[in-house]
Amino acid sequence: MKRALKWLLALAGVFVVLLGAIAFALHLWIGTADFRARVAQEASAALGVPVELGGLSVTVWPLPGVAVDHVEVKSNPPLSFERIEARPVWSALLSRKLEISTLFVRNAVLPQDAIAAVAAAFRKAHPEDKAEAQAAKQTSSGGSMLPDRIVLEKITWIDMKGQPNAVDATARIDADGLPAQADITVTQGRWDGVKLKLERKDNQWTIDGHIGGGTIAGKFTSNKSDKGEPLLDGDFETAGVEVSTFTAPSHTLTGRLDAHTELHANLRDLSAVADTSQSQTKFTVHNAVIHGIDLAEAVKTIGMNRGGETHLDTLAGQLVTHGRVAELNNLVASSGALSANGNVTMDAEKRLNGSVNVNLAQQVAGTALGVPLVVGGTLDAPTVTLSRGALIGAAIGTAIAPGIGTGVGAKLGEKLKGLFGK
């Protein structure tokens, strides 16, 4: 028994030495400048954008694999990766098939506009017919470059406004390349603290998230359009979320958000999803505060007041988005003797355009007042003013009867605005 154990230990030692020798030889070969240049050339041809590699190496611990350090995709701006490590399925290698078990990506910086540029270059380098032929060839060979598992550590995504968010994530990938399960945590940036969990069943994913002190829960379903394009439909509930979480760094509106959202997106071009997706949301904000505008004072001063804030018991309405453009419809707000309703649009640059009818009860203004205000400015610095017709009416009302006549005149002027031009 002891003799057999000694033989086993000796064989194990020989195996370790051979493995180390192979790893060392591979390291020497892969680490050469010629091999690195060949890999960079292949990667550049695949992406349609020049790729620069800092170094290649073979790893043995904790598991054998191949690592690439200091990768830079020469888009404008560039994409950068401190380390990309792939661990193969060794049983598949014995059958002469290349399959990746786990893909690790560490310390990457991914600007949104760079992702869009690389996606466009990739489509140009790989027309649809060639891509389909390559996919068919890959399937017939029995191998797959899709990893079974992806681990992301400190992946910093920079949005179109230059705001960074660092993410840690793990995901299991199904054979069709879509995630079967994913756990995502934002560790830095405007979405810091957000946690999301995805679980797949057939063509449907459930989402369970924690954000802004509240929760988001619902489902997403993937379908195909009549043209065969991939579609994504979502239906989810938001409960108790601090509304300024979605508008940060702006805090014009604060309060707790409850909402029901329906989302529709075409995934044919992932880099353009933010510009093509559509959504409809019915919402209520509890204990809402509008910062930067005092609607009561705006009514009393016929829109000349600036600054302040408005506390609301209730704020409800419907939000409709078309890409980066948002429309707030059927807005209804109330607080004590103040009530308001209206519609406001926000474009991709956060510029506001719309109108709000604000009414004050007699105990606040000395008489019942209702004044139509034009909403302008930006989300960070909103403004309310009178329209031309309402402003002329207010001037007439003030001349006839200061105080009560001002508000009445403003409302009358708005109704008769056609008499005063556009």
Summarize the structure.
With 422 residues, the protein is α+β, with helices and mostly antiparallel strands. It contains ten helices and 19 strands.
How is this structure best described in words?
The structure is a single chain. Residues 2-29, 129-143 and 388-422 have low confidence and may be disordered. The protein has helices at residues 2-30, 33-47, 90-94, 112-125, 128-141, 273-276, 295-300, 362-365, 388-400, 404-415, and strands at 51-59, 65-73, 79-88, 100-111, 149-158, 164-173, 179-189, 195-201, 204-211, 214-224, 230-242, 253-266, 278-291, 309-322, 325-335, 338-346, 352-360, 369-377, 382-385. The chain is built from ten helices and 19 strands. A hairpin with a 5-residue loop joins strand 1 and strand 2. The chain has 422 residues and is an alpha+beta fold. 19% of the residues are buried. The N and C termini lie far apart (102 Å). It has a 19-stranded mixed β-sheet. Among the domains are: 25-162, no CATH class; 386-422, no CATH class. Helices cover 27% and strands 46% of the residues.
